[in-house]
Specification:
The complex is a heterodimer of chains A (134) and B (664). Chain A is an alpha/beta fold. Chain A is built from 5 helices and 5 strands; from the N terminus they run βαβαβαβαβα. In chain A, 38% of the residues are buried. Chain B folds into 4 domains: 24-239, 2-Layer Sandwich (Beta-Lactamase); 292-395, 2-Layer Sandwich (Beta-Lactamase), CATH 3.30.450.20; 405-486; 506-663, Histidine kinase-like ATPase, C-terminal domain (Heat Shock Protein 90, 2-Layer Sandwich), CATH 3.30.565. The chains are: A alpha/beta (134), B alpha+beta (664).
Chain lengths: 134, 664
Amino acid sequence: MSELRTILHVDDDEDILEIARMALELVDNFELHQFSSGPDALEGLKTLSPQLLLLDVMMPGMTGLQMSEIVKSDPRHGDIATIFMTAKAEDTASKELLDSGALDVITKPFDPMSLGEQIRTIWATRKAARLQAI
Amino acid sequence: MLRSISGYFLIIAVSVIAGVGITIVNGQRYLAEQRLQVTQISASIASEITKSLNEKVLITKGIAAVFEAEPDLPADRFAQIAKKMVQEAEDIINVAAAPDLVFKYVFPLEQNQAVMGLDLRDRSDFMGGVDQAMLLGETLVDGPFELVQGGQGFITRSPVMYPSGTGASQGVWGVVSLVIDKNRFFSAVEDLHMSHGLDIVIETERGESLYGQSEVIEGDPVLTRVTAPGVSWTVSSVPRGGWPKTPPNFNLLWGLVALAAIVAILVKRSFDWLFARSVRAETQLMEAIEALDDGFALYDCDDRLILCNNRYKEMYPASADAMIPGRRFEDIVRYGLARGQFNAALGDEEAWLSKRLELHRTAGRPMEQGLNDGRWLRVVERRTPSGNTVGFRVDITELKAALAKAEKASAAKTEFLNTISHELRTPLTVVLGYNAFLRKPETLPTYMALAKTVDAESNVALSQALDAYQADIDRFAMQIDVSGQQLMGLIGGILDLAAIEEGTLRLKREVVNLRKLCDEVAAEMRPFADKKGLELTVSGDAGKVFADPLRLKQIASNLIVNAIKFTDRGEISVHLGKDGSKAWVEVRDSGRGIAAADLDRIFDRFAQLDASNTRDNGGVGLGLPISSELAVLHGGRVTVQSIEGKGSVFRLELSHAQAETEAA
C-alpha cells in the first residue's frame, strides 16, 4: 500500500475549499488539487492522477456521489479511492455513500488541525481492509 | 305466538282423540274379556247342571238294571239299594219303581206314600214322558212337574224290560223313576253363579223359565247349553248389575293420557324455548356480523360458503353474485378473477389463484389485497377448532393512503432536516475552520512572516503590541470555538432527537469495554474540570457491553459535562460496576443538586431548570433527554438521585449479558 500523497478535493463552497487547502497543504503536506464543481474536477482528472478523491456530497449540478460513480466507471481511474464530506444529518445517507465503495464519510464541520491525520488514518485502515478483501 | 298456541291445541286434541280411541279399544277388549269370563263361568254352571242330571240318569239306569235282573226284587232289598245310591244326593225326593206302570216300590217311603200305588196311566201329564222313554228305550229327564208331594221337580224315567230268556212274556216290565226337587237341584247352581257375581236364567227349549230372573234375557246375556237325555236347556248369564260401561282402569288410562299430554306440552314448550333461543342467538349473531364495519365470511370444512355479511359482498362487488351459501371458495374467487377483480392476478391468473388457495388453506399470516377499483383490503383467515374457516376483510385503502402520505411526510421531514443540517453546518464549518487557524496562527505563513519581521526589528513596543493583539485574538478565538461547539451540539442534539422520534437512529453495536470508554471520555473532559478546579476520577469496572461506542461516549460525555457545569467545587467521580446482568456507570458530583420537585422533568427536552443556566452553563437542555433516549435504545436507562445543595448521582444502566455472548 503506497503512502497517500495526492488528493483531489471538490467542494462548491469557496471558504471550505480554502480551509481544506490550509489544513491539507499547510498543516499536512499533501499535494492538493481543488475544484468547485464535479464537471470541473472530471475535466481536471484528464491530466491529474490523484490517489484519493475528497468529495463534498451536496453540490449543485453534480453531486459528489454522481461524480464518484462516473470516476469509478472510467477504467483509467479504477483504483482512485474516495472519501466523502457531508453536512447531511441522516445516517442512511452515510450508509448509501459507504455502500457506493467509499473509504469513509467525514462529517462537517471538520477540525482543520486534524483533518489530514484523519484522512491518513482512514487511508491506512480502510484501504488495507479493502486490499485484504480483494 | 299464534302458531305456538295452535301447537298446544293440537297436542290436546291428539291426546283426547288418542284417549278416546284407546278407551274404545280397551273397553272392547275388556268387554270381550268379561264375556269370555262369563262364558267360562256359565259353561261351568251348565256343566254342573249336566253333570248333576247325568248322575240322576245313571242312578235311575242303575236301579232299572237291578229290576231288569230281578223283576221280583223284594221291597226291602230295593230300599237298601236305593238308599245306597241316593243317600248323598240331597236334591232327590225319591226313587220309585212302577211295574206295569203302577208304583210298588218307593224310597224313601216316608213323605212319599202318596206315590205308592199310583198308576201312571192315571197321570196323563206323566205319560207323555213315560211313553217317550218306553219308545226310545232310553232314560230321559222330564219336567218340571207339580209333584204329588208338593212343589216342583224333575223326573228321570228309565224303562225296565223283562230280561230275555225268562219265562215272562217278552216286553216292558215297567218303569223306574227318580224325582228331583227343583229348588234343591238349582241351589247348587246358585252358589256358583252368586259367588262369581252373575245373574243367570235357565230356560227350556220352549222358553219356559226354570231358574233365575227373566230380565237377564234383556241384558245381552252369554248363552250356554245344558244337554242331557231328554233335556235341552239354555243358561243365560250376565254380570250382576249388567255389563260394565267402562273398564276399571278407565281413570288411570285418562290420567296417563293427560300426563302424556302435559309431558308433550312441556316438551313442546322446552323445544319452543330452545328453538326461540337458537333463533335469537342466530339473529343476534347475524345482526352483530352485519353491524361489523369489516367483511366477514364463514366457510365450512369443505370450503363452501356458510354465511357472509353484506359488507363482505360490498368489498367484492365483482364476485358478490357468486357469494351464495354452499358455493366453494375457489369458485367465488374464480368468479371475481374472471372479472379482473384482483390487481395482482392480472396476466397470471392461475398462478395467483394457486397461491391464493394455498394461503386460504393454511389460513396463516394476514395479507393485503389490491382490487381493481383502487381499494386495498387486509385479508385475515383463521381456522376454527371444528375445521371451518373464518375470513375477515378490512378496508385499508385510507390507511394505505395515510401510510403513503406519512412516508412521504417522513421523507420530506428527513430531507428538511438534511437541508437544515447542511445549511447550518456549512457556515459553521467555515467559522470553526477559520477559527482553528486563528487559534493556531503559527500554521499560517503570513503570521509566521509577521512574527519573523517583528523579531528582526527588535522593536520591544511593537513586539509587546503584537503579543497583546495575539492574546486578544486567542481569547476571541476561544470564545468563537466554544460558541461554535455549542451550536454544533445543539444542531446535533436536535437531529438526534428527530432521528430517535422517527425511529431512524440506528445503533452500530459492537463489544465495548465500558471502563476504557469512560477513561477516554474523562480524558477529553478533564481540561474543563481542571479549568474549574474540579477533580475528575474514574474507578471500578463494569465489564463489557454490546453497544454503539459513539452513542455511549455521547451519553458519558453528557453526564460528565453536566456534572462539571453544575459543580463549582469538590470533585466529579465516575464509578463503574456490575450487578447480575446489569452493568452500570455512576457519575457523582458535589454540585448544587436538583430539587426533588424538579427531578421528574430533568429528562424532558429543553428542561434547563433555571433559565439563567442556559447563559451561565451553556446548552439548552437536550443532553439528558438524548442520553436517556439513547440508553433506552440500548435496552437500558438513565436514572438520577440528587439532594439539593449536596450533589447528584446520574446512573447509566446497561445489560452486559449480550456482550458476553458476543465476546464468546
